[in-house]
Design a protein that fits this description.
Layout: H1 35-40, H2 44-48, H3 57-66, H4 92-103, H5 109-123, E1 129-132, E2 135-138, E3 143-147, H6 158-165, E4 173-175, H7 182-188, E5 193-198, E6 205-211, E7 218-223, H8 226-233, H9 240-249, E8 268-276, H10 277-283, H11 286-290, E9 298-301, H12 316-334, H13 343-357, H14 362-367, H15 371-385, H16 393-413, H17 422-431, H18 438-446, H19 452-464, E10 468-473, E11 480-485, H20 498-515
Parallel strand pairs: 3-8, 3-9, 4-7, 7-8
Antiparallel strand pairs: 1-2, 5-6, 10-11
Amino acid sequence: MKGKIDELGSGPTDPQLDTTDNEIDDNHVDKNIQGSDLNQQDTSSVQGGSNPAEVDVSSNIEAAKTVEPEEPNTLNKKQLWPDPLQPEAMPRVIGDFIKEATKNSEADPAAILITLLSHFAISCGPNPYLMVGDTKHYARINGVVVGESNSARKGTSIGPVKVVFELVERGCKTSPGPLSTGEGIINAVRDEAQEWVTDKKTNSGNWQVTDPGMKDKCLLVIEEEFSSSLQASKREGNTLSSIIRTLFDSGNCEPITKTSIIRCTNAHVGIIAHITLFELKKLLSENDKMNGFGNRFLWICAKRTKLVPFPEPLPVHVKQKMAEHIESAIKLAHEGKEYKLTNEAKQLWSDCYPDLAESRPGIAGTIIARAAPYVLRLALVYCLFRKGKSIGVEDIEAALVFWKYADQSANFIFDGTTVPDRKKQKILKCLGAGTKTTTEIRKEAFSNHIGSHILQELLEQLISDGIVECETTATGGAPKTTYRKIDRRFCAKSVLTPEQTEAMVTKNANALKAQGEICELDDSAILSDEQPVL
């Protein structure tokens, strides 16, 4: 699959924010000024040799002509709306259905797809699973459809899926919500409850059923007003966030309460929620963004794709055909088994895994931190939908393409960045050899295959993170700026004065050099509040 994961997380950026038109190189020469423009500048001092510190204009004209193409600047730019959902994410029957569902509708294909996959996945039950190490991953998917406004036609994505599943006998039960407490979800899929009853005459007793519980443990919550759920989760003592996380992972939950004991085992719960971008940014707490609640959802951008004054219902034959396919696929899934990857799928997964597992900065990086397991879950759902016996290449490819859309959506929603950390690691590795200029870093770390504006912004980020520092010194001409990696054997949050810390660094460095024990430290380590150890 061409570029199966190469472009993961990347997306369009706002051209209005591009600064390449006025890019300045290391000699402070505008690379985009044409030679004729340069000749019109005041060069008398250069020609006359009155100021030897002036830049040689003719040499810079030639340098401007031969500068290599710059990489697109995707750092510190607002992520634009995701690229259109690609057909590879909608294979076979799924693609045919979504094509019909959007033909005479304003619904977004991505919103229909997440609703369809989640509804189908929960209907398959908890029996099919995929092992990752010692952990079982089930066909459970949570999705949040996010529109920029109330006119994004988020709700229209539910209709086509709903009318199909009304014809499916084995479909899971659904609830319109709203989600208010974690205990409320557990109650909907609760286990049988028993109580020990003693006969006062015989002084003997036995267990009696006080609550038969729910035989069907499969539940899809379709929450069209997710804002109310987020508001509820902020109340003191509310367990909604933590229980959603637990049910996504294991399906087993037994909160400790003062009154009646309630629990569920092997529950299969999914959530499809709708919210506007404004409401989401206002109501999703910083804690839920960072504690794992956010990355247990696929965040899907949706908007009105076209204007349809008179939408038409889904044709009967389309509903029936799709319902028949889903019915037979669910029947196979209920037989239950462990699904494994084919050899070809394993090879594809090995190629994609490093990019999926790579950490990304900021809140958006936290939101998509569950990339690898989520792609596998999606692949399992795609496999079940096509009634496959094992997860194949086409399932991995479809999952990757859909994940890319979700990744770009998360970057748009949470204002993320699309520059991978590996470039920063290359810079740090280069600086580990000593103090460097930007020209040296560009050559040694990237073989000159990086735009100087991108390199400069990466360096500025490393400086703001307290990992790199720079020093500018005067020369006979343009000032010289050098960069070096900060010694991170000592924590940044020290109560010592800068002079004491510098003296301590020097003392310890000299001692280690004398012992021959200088070692490279992990630049990804998190700085602590502890005092440096002598």
